[in-house]
Every structure is written in structure tokens, then in C-alpha cells.
Automatic annotation (TrEMBL):
<feature type="transmembrane region" description="Helical">
    <location>
        <begin position="178"/>
        <end position="194"/>
    </location>
</feature>
<protein>
    <submittedName>
        <fullName>Cation transporter</fullName>
    </submittedName>
</protein>
<comment type="similarity">
    <text>Belongs to the cation diffusion facilitator (CDF) transporter (TC 2.A.4) family.</text>
</comment>
<feature type="domain" description="Cation efflux protein transmembrane">
    <location>
        <begin position="13"/>
        <end position="202"/>
    </location>
</feature>
<dbReference type="InterPro" id="IPR027469">
    <property type="entry name" value="Cation_efflux_TMD_sf"/>
</dbReference>
<feature type="transmembrane region" description="Helical">
    <location>
        <begin position="155"/>
        <end position="172"/>
    </location>
</feature>
<keyword id="KW-0472">Membrane</keyword>
<dbReference type="InterPro" id="IPR002524">
    <property type="entry name" value="Cation_efflux"/>
</dbReference>
<dbReference type="InterPro" id="IPR050291">
    <property type="entry name" value="CDF_Transporter"/>
</dbReference>
<dbReference type="Pfam" id="PF01545">
    <property type="entry name" value="Cation_efflux"/>
</dbReference>
<feature type="transmembrane region" description="Helical">
    <location>
        <begin position="7"/>
        <end position="27"/>
    </location>
</feature>
<feature type="transmembrane region" description="Helical">
    <location>
        <begin position="77"/>
        <end position="95"/>
    </location>
</feature>
<feature type="transmembrane region" description="Helical">
    <location>
        <begin position="110"/>
        <end position="134"/>
    </location>
</feature>
<dbReference type="InterPro" id="IPR058533">
    <property type="entry name" value="Cation_efflux_TM"/>
</dbReference>
<feature type="domain" description="Cation efflux protein cytoplasmic">
    <location>
        <begin position="207"/>
        <end position="281"/>
    </location>
</feature>
<keyword id="KW-0812">Transmembrane</keyword>
<dbReference type="Pfam" id="PF16916">
    <property type="entry name" value="ZT_dimer"/>
</dbReference>
């Protein structure tokens, strides 16, 4: 159900981006504005990233199979990395264009149609950004969140053009300077997206909050102090695998120790939705 919500939101994103691309391109041609035409193509790039997200969501929804026993959840991580790379390309394009404007002392001239279209684009893209991020957080979809930030980058670029419309007539350099600021924001967003998702691919340690919760759950399973330790966590999208060790008295039979470990695994799955595998060490060792 959660995956379907993400797919529905992504389809909506693709159609809205194509619509915005069309009206921006029209406004840019009518007003002879190179900036708005470039921004139109920037918007179309959002559709490309949304397609990448859609593929990631579709693939991640596939069940586990013989070749992929842990499912296909990491397809979303790969899609997020693609979105991050697209943001970097767009950021570089903004930076290059802004530097050229400063070097040539180019002034920006926009008409009324350009103003209206830019405002519409700004409002629609910010709505799309917030919606994608909310859905992404609700469904734990990193690619949806990344796509939301991509929408926001387009909203920011529209804001830059809008500011340039009202201030550029007094300061010829304002559009170039704001363009550089936007490109730096895009690079920072790219860094954040890539850092988080590459970290997931490389593998991460358990966070303190989860470790504390697992330790507390041990008290509900057995009267013995089990000393949970040596945690390893593997994330596959919405599916998480965790292995760790516990210590039990060597006087317990194999059956008794196994019953305790199994009860512990079931409780962890129920409370945290994490598939745990518990290895038993003897306190006598």
C-alpha cells in the first residue's frame, strides 16, 4: 500500500513536470528569454529523475527470489543516487550559466507572461516538493525524498528568476550572483543525498537508540542477563536484517537456549519490524 502511494505520487510528478515544461518553454519563446527556456529544460529533468524514482519503486516492490534473497529494496537507493547525480549536473549548469552572465554583463528582460508562468511554477513545484517529501517520510522511501528535493531545486530556480525580474533592472549582476547561490545549494543537496544513500550501500552500524531498544526487549524474553552485542545491520529498502550475539548460561540445554533466542527474534520483529538472527554464546566460554 505504501509503495503504491509512492508510485501514484511519482506518476503525478511526471505529468505536472511535463505540463510546467510546456508552459515555461512557451513563455520563454514568447518573451525571448534564454533563462526561462533553460529553466524549462531544468523542469523536464525532474521528469527524468521521477522516472528513475518510479523504476526504483517498481523494482523495490518485487519480492525476494533465489538470486536476491533479501528482496530488491536497494533499487530505491540506486534511484536516489541517480537523482543526486542529476542534481549535480543541473547545479553545474547553473554555475556555468551564472558565471557567463557575470562575464558578459548580461541583463535579464522578462515580460508579463514570464512573470505569471514563473510564479505558477514556483508555487506548483514547492507543493510537489512538500508532497513528495511527506510521502517519502511516511513510506520510508529515500528516493521519494530525494525527488522532493529535486522539485525544490526547481522551485528555487524559479524564485531566482522571479527575484531577477524585480531587482535585475536596477542591478545587472543580481541574476548571476543568485544563480551561483542556487548552484551551491544544489551541490549541497547533492552531497546530502549521495552521502546518505552511499552510506546505506556500504553498510552502517546500529544507532544508539535502536541498540538501547533491543537491549530493553531482552528483559521481556528471559530472566537471564543476555548482554546483546556485536550488532550488524543490513538495510534493503523497507526490509532490514540484523544479526547479533547474546550470552546464556552454559547449563541450559540447546533446546532451552534456542527457545529463548527464537522468542527474542519474534519480539524484535513485532516491535521494530526488523528480521533478527541471534547467535548464542555461552557465559562459561
Amino acid at each position: 500500500m505504501e509503495n503504491k502511494a509512492g508510485i501514484k505520487a511519482t506518476f503525478g510528478s511526471i505529468f505536472l513536470n511535463i505540463f510546467l515544461f510546456a508552459i515555461k518553454l512557451w513563455a520563454g519563446i514568447v518573451s525571448s528569454s534564454v533563462a526561462i527556456i533553460a529553466d524549462a529544460w531544468h523542469t523536464l529533468s525532474d521528469s527524468i529523475s521521477s522516472v528513475a524514482v518510479l523504476i526504483g519503486l517498481k523494482v523495490s516492490a518485487k519480492p525476494a527470489d533465489e538470486e536476491h534473497p533479501y528482496g530488491h529494496g536497494r533499487a530505491e537507493v540506486i534511484a536516489s543516487i541517480i537523482v543526486g547525480m542529476l542534481l549535480a549536473i543541473i547545479g553545474f549548469s547553473f554555475l556555468k550559466e551564472s558565471i557567463v552572465k557575470l562575464q558578459t554583463k548580461s541583463e535579464v528582460e522578462y515580460g508579463t507572461i514570464a512573470v505569471v508562468v514563473t510564479i505558477v511554477s514556483l508555487l506548483v513545484k514547492e507543493f510537489m516538493a512538500q508532497y513528495s517529501i511527506i510521502i517519502g517520510k511516511r513510506t520510508n522511501s529515500k528516493s521519494m525524498i530525494a525527488d522532493g528535493w529535486h522539485h525544490r531545486s526547481d522551485a528555487i530556480s524559479s524564485l531566482v528568476i522571479l527575484v531577477g525580474i524585480f531587482i535585475g533592472r536596477y542591478y545587472w549582476w543580481i541574476d548571476g550572483v543568485l544563480g551561483i547561490i542556487v548552484s551551491l545549494l544544489l551541490f549541497y543537496t547533492t552531497y546530502s543525498i549521495l552521502k546518505e544513500n552511499i552510506s546505506h550501500l556500504l553498510g552502517e552500524g546500529i544507532d544508539n537508540e535502536l541498540r538501547d531498544e533491543i537491549v530493553l526487549l531482552a528483559k521481556e524474553v528471559s530472566e537471564f542477563e543476555m548482554y546483546p552485542h556485536h550488532f550488524l545491520v543490513h538495510q534493503y529498502g523497507n526490509h532490514t536484517e540484523m544479526t547479533f550475539h547474546i550470552r546464556l548460561p552454559g547449563t541450559l540445554s540447546i533446546h532451552e537456549a534456542h527457545e529463548i533466542a527464537t522468542s527474542y527474534e519474534i519480539l524484535i520483529k513485532k516491535r521494530t519490524n526488523i528480521q533478527a538472527t541471534v547467535h548464542i554464546d555461552s557465559l562459561d566460554v
